[in-house]
Amino acid sequence: MPASPPSRYVRKQLSVTPEQDRALKRRSRELGVSEAELVRRALDAALADALAAPPAGSPLDELLAHTRQLGEGRRLEGGWDREALYDDRGYGRDRGDAAEA
Length: 101
Prior knowledge:
By secondary structure, the protein is mostly helical.
């Protein structure tokens, strides 16, 4: 959301369902802002979410989906912690201990 309102807005016309219209009116009253401001806020939030995630079907999206699939069913019971993992491998807490092990 911009820190101060722009000096000029671009007018848009959109269609909403009757339920969306009622919800928009109710929420704008609750927040004490115009319906247009509430729509701008929702649009900002939706666009921010879209920018945070890679586009569907992109190589990055496919790689992330593949790595999630590989990890399914491979979770350790009770989780793990780094110190226990290092202890199991014979490493000490610092390099001096590791050299002695």
